[in-house]
TrEMBL record, chain A:
CDD domains: TRAPPC4_synbindin (cd14856)
Any single Gene Ontology cellular-component annotation: TRAPPII protein complex
Source organism of this protein record: Naumovozyma castellii
Gene name of this polypeptide: NCAS0B02540
Quaternary organization: Part of the multisubunit transport protein particle (TRAPP) complex.
Recorded family membership: Belongs to the TRAPP small subunits family. TRAPPC4 subfamily.
UniProt-annotated stretches for the region Disordered: 87-110
Compositional bias (Gly residues): 91-107
GO molecular function terms noted in the UniProt entry: guanyl-nucleotide exchange factor activity
Protein's name in the database: Trafficking protein particle complex subunit
TrEMBL record, chain B:
GO BP term, pick one: cytoplasm to vacuole targeting by the Cvt pathway
The family this protein is said to belong to: Belongs to the TRAPP small subunits family. BET3 subfamily.
Gene3D superfamilies named in the record: Trafficking protein particle complex subunit 3
SUPFAM superfamilies assigned: Ligand-binding domain in the NO signalling and Golgi transport
Protein name: Trafficking protein particle complex subunit BET3
Primary residence: endoplasmic reticulum
PANTHER family: TRAFFICKING PROTEIN PARTICLE COMPLEX SUBUNIT 3
Gene: NCAS0C05400
Automatic annotation (TrEMBL), chain C:
Organism (species): Naumovozyma castellii (Yeast)
Keywords assigned by UniProt, alphabetized: Endoplasmic reticulum, ER-Golgi transport, Golgi apparatus, Transport
Positions with biased composition (Polar residues): 115-128
Molecular-function GO terms, alphabetical: guanyl-nucleotide exchange factor activity
GO cellular component, one term: TRAPPII protein complex
Keyword Disulfide bond belongs to the record: no
Identification of the protein by name: Trafficking protein particle complex subunit
Subcellular location, record wording: Endoplasmic reticulum; Golgi apparatus, cis-Golgi network
Quaternary structure and interacting proteins, as annotated: Part of the multisubunit TRAPP (transport protein particle) complex.
Signal peptide residue numbers: none
Predominant cellular place of this UniProt entry's protein: endoplasmic reticulum
One Pfam family per UniProt: TRAPP
InterPro entries for the chain: NO_sig/Golgi_transp_ligand-bd, TRAPP-I_su5, TRAPP_component
Length: 236, 198, 267
């Protein structure tokens, strides 16, 4: 799944972060794809964020509970999908090994995950906090995935390559077909895995930045860099 | 009834396992003493800046903790992805077995429940903040040395829509037999619970 | 001023003599001195540390009107820690290996849960178990002083104390020795300690104009350590990224003239 755009929206609908990740070279664009329309300006994105925030609230009025349809025992568990957004060959080795003698930090340099130990941010399935809200929004042009945290942050990923009707191979074995259901479900799960990792990056590179003021736009170049690296891994 | 009780115990056991597992495998660590010394330097600075006005220092420590708490909660949730707690009993378990475990590698004992189960105490042994600390005689009566913890809990709980009061009732540094911190739920901020999270 | 008492060599005798433990406060304070001696290798999360560091920076930043004031204050924090660590680490380095290398023994004898529970259930303090534990504890503490046959000699040479910082201090603080220790080829009073991946500042944006200033905390620790060791100097941070280590920082140590003069007097 290729992620083209990422947004972070705060609990009151304010836009904290927005980046596009489309690799620029225009010649590589498929011929049948129309030229992207004019870029949105920052004001457009602010409006987009608050609109999405509102749509999200309205959409949750359509949930079975609100419609008084009883649907018990819904499983909100998101399976852990290995290596989403992680470097493919088990970690790059830092190029810094040429640094002079007396080197003490033996570990590989640049593939550390901040305050998260190990080669992935988490390894277990987890329960979605977004139970009755909007999780996925599909049009013929794009698919949007929404991950909401318990504190009310929304992480939104936009992809033009995952269409709900598109078949995606299940990661392992056919016995899991039921579990993953159709490809759309799998796409949601991959997106949730990815967006939770962006949340992890946020908790390190935004929350632990002493010069970041809460509820303000995120300007950290480090956060940017880490998110970009993760999306690059996703898109490969 | 019995069913719910047994399910609570299995839950709390698994919280213990969850906390320990995340602490062990998913959390980068650093020397406790560096942490304690850094905090000590900060408190010492406050003593200077606030000219030994202990109530102001307590307040300042609390507000610093609050600033930390509203950020730290995101780290905690991203790391654990724990679902919302259904009641304060569950909340107390998460705080003790997961939050304290993952951040400070201690598991305070939960006790002294109020009758309506809206307030409880945490008995903190091996408080890493108090490492090396001896309070000056004149400050001993009035200073809550680890008050930052109350602020952290206050801020973090507020971010998950629990309006609580958090305060110390005893501290071993003051000559008390144990260090006891109290958490009392005022109300659940229902209006602020994110839509979709119910 | 609360001060964090790290055991000093001179206070050992006063400590080891038996003092009444009937008063809980005194008992705790006694334990404080005894327990601090042995490195228990306790750890907390890097997150907790960086959140504290962040709030500390935030506080200082608000209360400083200029950048240099901020740097000075942050450096003073570090210094207050560094000068304590010189005493602490020297002392611990003097403990015989048999006492420091058996973590189980020390953790049993010095775990605070033992004395705390004793105090908490004052009714049960006189159970044979509790008494035995306490006796065991105090006897070992008294023994501890006896075990030190010879204090580790203070480092007197520039290179010796820098090696101690590069090795012992750095491992204590950051779990690994520093990435390099270099002498300036241009000025003979300048030395550099290199950290490829500084831990405390790793979440601060590189684009931040304050990033370099935040390194003054560690600078202060180095400086305090050296000052207390009798090596007056100034320490400043310099961001020197290399390929693969974007956050690499060099702590530049400039010794005062007197240090070099003394160094040359030795034979």
């Amino acid at each position: 799944m290729a992620i083209e755009s990422l947004l972070i929206i705060n609990k009151s609908g304010g836009l904290l972060y927005q980046r596009n990740f489309i690799d620029k070279p225009p010649q590589s664009q498929a011929p049948n794809q129309p030229e992207p329309q004019q870029q949105l300006n920052s004001n457009d994105y602010l409006i987009l964020a608050s609109t999405l925030h509102g749509v999200f609230a309205i959409a949750s009025q359509l949930t079975p509970k609100a419609l008084q349809l009883s649907q018990n025992d819904i499983d909100y568990t998101i399976p852990y999908i290995p290596n989403v957004g992680m470097p493919t060959n088990g970690g790059r080795t830092g190029n810094g090994s040429t640094v002079g003698g007396g080197s003490g930090s033996s570990g590989p340099g640049s593939n550390k995950l901040g305050s998260f130990k190990g080669d992935d941010f988490f390894k277990d399935s987890f329960v979605s906090w977004n139970k009755s809200g909007l999780r996925q929004l599909c049009t013929d042009q794009f698919t949007m995935f929404i991950y909401q945290t318990m504190t009310g942050l929304k992480f939104v990923a936009i992809s033009t390559t995952v269409m709900p009707q598109q078949k995606v191979a299940t990661p392992s074995g056919t016995d899991k077909l039921d579990r993953y259901g159709n490809s759309s479900n799998l796409a949601i799960q991959i997106a949730d895995n990815f967006l939770r990792k962006v949340y992890c990056l946020y908790s390190d590179y935004v929350m632990k930045d002493p010069f970041y003021s809460m509820e303000m736009p995120i300007k950290s170049d480090l956060f940017d860099k880490k998110v970009r690296a993760m999306i690059k891994n996703m898109n490969e | 009834m019995s069913r719910s009780r047994s399910s609570t115990t299995t839950q709390s056991r698994s919280l213990k396992v969850t906390g320990e597992e995340i602490w062990k495998n998913k959390t980068e660590k650093i020397n406790t003493e560096l942490f304690a010394l850094t905090y000590g330097a900060l408190v010492a600075q406050l003593f200077e800046d606030y000219d030994n006005d202990y109530s102001l220092i307590n307040e300042r420590l609390f507000s610093m903790g609050y600033n930390i708490g509203v950020r730290l909660i995101e780290d905690f949730l991203a790391r654990t992805a724990l679902p919302r707690c259904e009641d304060m009993v569950r909340t107390s378990e998460v705080i003790s077995k997961c939050a304290f475990k993952i951040f400070l590698n201690i598991t305070p004992h939960v006790t002294n429940w109020s009758n309506n189960k809206d307030s409880f105490s945490l008995i903190i042994e091996d408080n890493p903040l108090s490492e090396f600390v001896e309070l000056p005689m004149n400050a001993k009566k009035q200073i809550w040395y680890s008050n930052v913890l109350c602020g952290v809990l206050k801020g973090a709980l507020e971010m998950v829509q629990l309006d609580c009061d958090v305060w110390f009732v005893a501290d071993i540094l003051k000559g008390d037999p144990q260090t006891e911190l109290k958490i009392k739920l005022n109300k659940i901020l229902k209006d602020e619970i994110p839509i979709g999270d119910d | 001023m609360p001060h964090q008492k790290i055991i000093q060599t001179s206070s050992i005798d006063a400590q080891s003599s038996t003092r009444s433990t009937s008063n809980t406060g005194t008992h705790y304070d006694d334990l404080l001195y005894q327990r601090s001696l042995i490195y228990k290798k306790n750890e907390i999360s890097l997150s907790a540390m960086t959140f504290l560091f962040q709030e500390m920076i935030n506080y200082l930043h608000q209360s400083s009107s200029t950048m240099s004031e901020f740097e000075l204050k942050l450096s003073r924090y570090g210094q207050s820690i560094g000068l304590r660590l010189l005493e602490l680490l020297n002392f611990r380095a003097s403990l015989p290996a048999s006492l420091t290398s058996i973590p189980t023994r020390s953790s049993i004898l010095f775990s605070s849960s033992a004395p705390l529970t004793d105090q908490a259930n004052s009714n049960s303090t006189n159970t044979p178990d509790a008494i035995r534990k306490r006796e065991e504890e105090s006897s070992t503490n008294a023994d501890l002083a006896k075990h030190i046959t010879k204090m580790r000699r203070r480092d007197l040479k520039i290179l010796d104390i820098l090696q101690f910082i590069h090795g012992t201090l750095w491992s204590y603080l950051f779990h690994h020795v520093s990435d390099d220790l270099v002498k300036s080829s241009e000025r003979n009073n300048e030395y550099m300690i290199v950290d490829n991946e500084p831990q405390l500042t790793q979440f601060i944006p590189q684009s931040s104009k304050f990033l370099n200033s935040c390194h003054f905390f560690v600078c202060g620790m180095i400086q305090g350590f050296l000052l207390n060791g009798g090596f007056p100097c100034s320490v400043s941070p310099h961001l020197m990224p290399v390929d693969g280590f974007d956050e690499r920082v060099i702590y530049l140590i400039k010794f005062d003239e007197q240090v070099l003069e003394r160094e040359s007097l030795r034979f």
